[in-house]
Structures are given as C-alpha cells and as structure tokens.
C-alpha cells in the first residue's frame, strides 16, 4: 500500500484516539495520557497507538490497563471516522521516549556541571551585562499595560 495513505490513516487514528481519550473516556484509571504517534500495518488491519503516561510506574500500569479495556470503544470511534473496509484493531503501547529524553537531559546537565563547576559564590554575583539589561529605561515608566489596540491616552 502507498506510504502516504498509511501516513494519513495513522494520523486519523492518532487524532481520533487522542480526542476519545481526552474527551469521551470516563474511566478514572485513564489520566495523564498523551498520544504521541500511531503506526498502522500495511493491510490496515492492525494499529499501534503509542502513548506517554505521566506518573509512577504503578499509575502507568493502571492507565495502560484502562486503555486496554477502552480499546473497543476507541475502535468504535475510529469506525465512525474512517471510510475504509476494515477498522484497524487498536493496541496501546507505552512510549518511553519522553521519559528517556528527560533522563538524557538530566545526565547531560549533571555532566556539564561536573566539567564546568560554577565560580565560587557563583549565583549571587551578577556581571555587568546582566546589570545593563535591568538598568535600561524603556521610556514607559510605571504605567500599567493597556489593552491591545488602545493608545493609552485619555479620551
């Protein structure tokens, strides 16, 4: 099957699943879910919906169980939206990409701090450039901000 059609169907699956999870599901187990992407098989019979779940490991497992229970409901929503012969069988997969990127950023930050330690008394000391920005006068005085489109002059 053409790859652009698969991409379009995957995008419809992603949008429909995200909308259904956010607005239509009433399951209290399903919370803090972000649909990151969807992959559809070449024959449009199966699709994997990748989700990112915020929370502890136990909360993630509980949310994934709730999503597995709601897969039929999401397929029904998908059937209303798709105009294909088959409605893909939906399975949810926990996407670890967000969690891994946060962990990598933390490791890089710690390594940078280890290699470039801050100067002694570092946080309390300001440079001349930092002071320059704070001391600049923009000519506006202490007047409160005005609504967009108004001149600020009395009428």
Q: What's this, in brief?
A:
The protein has helices at residues 3-24, 57-69, 71-81, 97-115, 128-135; strands at residues 33-40, 46-53, 89-94.
For CATH, the homologous superfamily of the domain at 3-101 is named as K homology (KH) domain
Query: How many E-type strands?
Result: 3
Radius of gyration: 25 Å
Based on the coordinates given, report the CATH architecture of the domain at 3-101. Answer: 2-Layer Sandwich
* Strand percentage: 5-15%
Main β sheet profile:
3 strands, mixed
Query: The CATH topology of the domain at 3-101, please?
Result: GMP Synthetase, Chain A, domain 3
Order of helices and strands: HEEHHEHH
- Overall shape: elongated
Secondary structure class reads alpha+beta
From the N-terminal CA to the C-terminal CA, the straight-line distance is 66 Å
H/I helix tally: 5
Low-pLDDT runs of 5+ residues are none
Strand adjacency order, main sheet: 1-2-3
**Helix content percent band:** 40-55%
CATH class of the domain at 3-101: Alpha Beta
SSE arrangement:
Blueprint: H1 3-24, E1 33-40, E2 46-53, H2 57-69, H3 71-81, E3 89-94, H4 97-115, H5 128-135
Parallel strand pairs: 2-3
Antiparallel strand pairs: 1-2
Helix pairs in contact: 1-3
Write structural notes for this entry.
The chain has 155 residues and is of the alpha+beta class. It has a domain of 99 residues: GMP Synthetase, Chain A, domain 3 (2-Layer Sandwich). The chain has five helices and three strands. A hairpin with a 5-residue loop joins strand 1 and strand 2. Helix 1 crosses helix 3. The longest helix has 22 residues. It is elongated and about 70 Å long.
